[in-house]
Amino acid sequence: MEFENKLISGQFIKRYKRFFVDIKIKNKIITAHCPNTGSMLGLLNIGNKVWLSKSKNPKRKLKYTLQIIESNKKKIGVNTHLTNKIVHHALKNNLVKEFGKKIKIKPEIKFGSNTRFDFLVTGNNYKAFIEVKNVTLSRTNGIAEFPDSVTTRGLKHINELLKARSKGYIVYILYLIQREECKSFKIAGDIDPKYSISLSKAVKKNLNILCYDCKFSSKGIKLNRKIKYKI
Q: Does domain 8-77 have CATH number 3.30.200.20?
């Protein structure tokens, strides 16, 4: 997944009203859009280096969008609007090894009366739903964690995936770790115990877990390595 424009570097000042961040670029402070509704726990330290993109749309109220934060000399992708684009690119280019080369990919597929899953992948003799979760949290060196706050939406997706499993679909949650340095992934049970317990039960009912990290470049963000899931 490539950025539309070259990124601009700056320094983080503060976040407020969830969707706004103040960034210092050279000697000027600008307000940018924060495309992440999570807590971004551990990332919002004053002075952290950040990278922004500038929109070409003249009608946009906020011209800049926060894309990457650097914390402890590590880059973390925080734009959740890019998460599915990164995974879609990976599926099309056979970077997710759990699926064959000859597959059909359909994004944003409705299931039931009030649920949409991120992807429906069909291959020879199988059909699979994939729900993607963006991961930015790492409190222990080398270990990525999800969630960074209580996620009722995530809990709902677990239950809906199990319903799909009962109807003959293979079901996956793919945790996209928008970091480079993590060697393993685990659920932050202390942050959301209900999610942790529900996921453990769902895994026993054949919910599949995939964890991949990302590779950053000046041009974009790409799915990289498979990461070990620590139960």
A: no
